[in-house]
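Predict structure. Chain length: 198.
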Amino acid sequence: MQDETTGGMTLGSAIDRILEALAPLDEMSRRTAIRAVCEQLGIDLHGIPQQVPPSTSVGEPPRAARHAHAHPTAPADIRSFAQTKAPATAMEQAALVAFYLSEVAPETERKDSIDKEDIKRYFKQAGFPLPKRPEQTLVNARHAVYLDPIGEGKYRLNPVGYNLIAHTLPRRDEQGAASRRRVGRKRQQAARRRQGAR
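Prediction complete.
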């Protein structure tokens, strides 16, 4: 079978490059990378391709498509959004701020990058504890592979950070544990009331 050629690259060589890039990663990282690439290219993993305008670059999916897929009814204020997603660490909170500003915020606030001033402002609005060094929080989020540096102290949400906020949070096991704790407390309170009534 002869490889199809697209833009000077054969289908076979494209597959080889993808395999070479994914080979060093563990299975979970491979799944995340493949999912992120499919989202950015507008490929539906269930087999139905999304309509991607020709003017959209490969590295940047159309904003309207991203919004409809990730959060069709996302709250407009960051505090409500943060409560919905429940990020557990300052790094996840930084990724949430970047996601909020690029995907959810009102158009007048929307931007594609964040810096330490955004961390200070939006951590306060979200009700997150303020870090002593906001710039270090951004560096840590970069090391966690949620953000990419773009120069001058600014960072942009990358596909890993996007997937974290759009698809991973809130974590189901954390929700289940919280629910179990609430049920346990209610049972204890009911038992105390029964004992007091005797």
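Summary: Confidence is low (pLDDT under 50) at residues 47-62, 64-70.
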